[in-house]
Amino acid sequence: MARLPLQCLAATLALLTLLLPGGAAHAADLPRRSQLGAQLDPAAATAASAAGLRVQTVLPGLSAQALGMRVGDVITAVDGQAVASTPQLLAWLTTKPAGSQARLTVRRDDKTLELSGSLVERPREAASAHYVVEYGHVAAVRGRQRTLLSTPLPAVAGQRHPALLFVQGVTLSSIDQPLTDANAYSRIVAAFANNGFVTLRVEKPGVGDSEGGPATTVDFEQELDGYRQALKALRARPEVDPSRIFIFGHSMGGLWAPLLASEVPVRGIAVAGTGFRTWIEYALENTRRQSLLSGATAAAVHDDLTRLAPLLTGFLAEWLTPAQLRERHPGAKDLLDDLFEAGGTLHAGRALPFWHQVNALNLPAAWAKAHANGAPQVLALWGEHDFLVNGLDHRLLAEHLNGLRADSAQALMLENTDHAFLQTRSQADSFKHWGQPGKAFNPSVIHALDTWIRPLAGRGLR
């Protein structure tokens, strides 16, 4: 049986941002931390070498370049400890403040090399002709979390602007990147920052400068609190018009968005590539879709899903541990090996309680509560070639909200676009090239946001 592609919604999106953060902050001002500056992809073990992380891109001026890392290198150990996954590397980086010494073992052209040197501090974002960036933090349940606030130029005393809280997906990648970068998240936020919106981004607990790590131990509710505190702080800013606050939630961010809006009223919510049905439904459907894209036969997929369904129910609904599942289903070792990682402590890179809480969500009820708290306008976007989500969830969301109030929501498909907002020819094309360089950003998401937000905010994004 082929290995099941059990990626959670956006769980494979770690390569979207290309940057790996390091160092948990403890000083009063949340100082800048180190940054590796490399795009990595898991590399399988060979007969002669252990598994590791293959370097796809080395960014200039950061730690990877300073250490002498090259594209094609496979990182197999850090400070003498084996590393084979991004969460492992992230956990190591949280122990390495900027300026500290690091020793990486890499496989290069069938040779094993030791790369050593000092880790480089992550750079700060510069101001532009349209906005200035302020580094701050909010106090949340897991500790202080780094915030990046952009405010429009020129600054006029007493002037209030529309505002955007950007909520990223599930992966533990940093949002602390210049808005001039070419990645999709920066491109989307920059469209708002360059057109008179105040924008706010917040790092996840244990990521970048934020306290509260290890990030892999953070659950859904704890992460929600960071966004909650950020939204409250945004609303309290003197530059912000509280009647024109918007949330953009990508992927898992689309699940946090209605929970935030049910507590703090907003003018509008845009979600993209997200879910609406139960998580068990999502996991089964996503496994079917990706298995078929991987080349599995329909008959084999049917058999695998039949075996997988009780495992997901036990894990997500009954909260059984991996050990309990193995005892209950002794013939399902192959599927359980796919479901859990890091000794059974993680699923899709996140702590098991994270997924228990996600599955417990009643999203229709959450959206109805958000609707009752100010009746925001909602835009639900999905890419035509998104292999991680189904457009049906977005249509069901819009139908649900329009049943509460006519014309309060719309669902819109982005043509030739995938989950990462990249231009693609098909689902198969996106699946085949996922995480690889070469695909261009599709500005259709910005065009759709511009059309939607212009009458609500009194200004657009172009």
Characterize the structure shown.
With 462 residues, the chain is an alpha/beta fold. It has two domains: 34-118, Pdz3 Domain (Roll); 131-277 and 360-457, 3-Layer(aba) Sandwich (Rossmann fold), CATH 3.40.50.1820. The protein is built from 14 helices and 16 strands. The protein has helices spanning 63-66, 86-93, 184-193, 220-236, 253-261, 279-293, 298-317, 322-328, 333-339, 352-360, 363-372, 391-404, 427-432, 444-457, and strands at residues 38-43, 52-58, 74-78, 81-82, 101-108, 111-118, 131-140, 143-152, 161-167, 198-202, 240-250, 268-272, 346-347, 350-351, 377-383, 409-414. The strands form three sheets. It has an eight-stranded mixed beta sheet, with helices on both faces. Strand 13 (346-347) and strand 14 form a beta hairpin. The longest helix is centred in the middle third of the chain and has 20 residues, at 298-317. The relative contact order is 0.13.
